[in-house]
Amino acid sequence: xxxxxxxxxxxxxxxxxxxxxxxxxxxxxxxxxxxxxxxxxxxxxxxxxxxxxxxxxxxxxxxxxxxxxxxxxxxxx
Length: 77
Description:
The protein is α+β, with helices and mostly antiparallel strands.
């Protein structure tokens, strides 16, 4: 069963409370998403560390109920 975009955003915000999260359903199938996550907590972290923080927030759902996630992370301007 695919994961809802709102559920993905909620999980990320629960783990990274200051995150601004935008989720886009890339294929219209509820299974292939793009996420843009902006957080002050990413400041000073490498891009890899930022993305690991987001994947950790998803609690191991990548590759299971969440099939594909194109991830972009950033710090606020």
